[in-house]
Amino acid sequence: MAAQAQDMQVARQAIVDQLHNYARAMDRIDHALGYAVWHEDGTADYGPMFSGTGRAFVDWACETHGGMIAHAHRISNILIRVEGEQARSEAYVHATLRFEQGGGLRQASVFGRYLDRWSKRDGRWAIGARVYVQDFDDIRDVGPQIITPWGRRDRSDPSYAILNGDELASKSAR
Q1: Per-residue pLDDT for 172 more than 60?
Q2: Which H/E stretch holds residue 16?
Q3: If residue 3 lies in a helix (H) or strand (E), which one and from where to where?
Q4: Count of other CB atoms within 10 angstroms of residue 162
Q5: Residues 88-111, buried b or exposed e (16+ Cβ, 10 A)?
Q6: Could you say which of 17, 56, 137, 170 would form a disulfide bridge with 110 (CB–CB 3.0 to 4.6 Å)?
Q7: DSSP letters of 60-98?
Q8: How far is the CA of 91 from the CAs of 22, 51, 116, in angstroms?
Q9: Backbone angle region of 7, left / alpha / beta, with phi > 0 → left and psi within -120 to 50 → alpha
């Protein structure tokens, strides 16, 4: 019984880690990290925005995000049901997207949920099927940033250096 509870907790943490990897992949425009969240045959249904494979979604989202000024994805309220090597989850997402439109700066706050079916294959938990449900959004005009950001939307972001154990590189990123 204790081993089964431990296995379930390990599975839940692996799924939470993958959800966080997904948000990081979107914000850092990291195709490889995004691909690793889905199984090769995984599907993504984002309603009228996109329907296809997980890999094709990552390509589409990275291209779309690449045309924006900045974006941040936050995942919370994660519910996971594990049954052996299968699982289902609901996770809330809040994405903030900054972009130019009509000669001005706009910012969208998008609130939705990821409804995912997961499976463990070859020791790795990944998405087999995702349905995105959009709950609401807010788009508004914004002014320029007060401080010039030093975060990067690629693998030159300081987070890659620090997570790879190179603390000095992250300090010099500013």
Answers
A1: no
A2: helix 2-28
A3: helix 2-28
A4: 15
A5: ebebbbebebebeeeeebbbbebe
A6: 137
A7: HHHHHHHTSSEEEEEEEEEEEEEETTEEEEEEEEEEEEE
A8: 12, 19, 8
A9: alpha
* Beta bridge pairs of residue 27: none
Do 21 and 55 fall within a single domain? yes
Q: For 3-54, what is each residue's pLDDT tens digit?
A: 888 999 999 999 999 999 999 999 999 999 999 999 999 999 999 999 999 9
pTM for the whole structure: 0.91
Task: Identify whether residues 103 and 73 lie together within a single domain.
Answer: yes
Q: Which residues form the domain of 168? A: 149-174
User: Does one domain contain both 112 and 156?
Assistant: no
d(CA 44, CA 71): 20
Residues in the chain: 174
Strands 104-121 and 86-101, sheet pairing: antiparallel
Separation of alpha carbons 62 and 137, rounded Å: 20
pLDDT at 130 over 60: yes
> Could you tell me if 155 and 132 lie in one domain?
no
Give CA–CA dist 172/165, Å, rounded: 14
CATH of the domain at 79: 3.10.450.50
Number of domains in the chain: 2
- Do 106 and 37 lie in one domain? The reply is yes
Nearest to 173 by CA among 156, 24, 154: 156
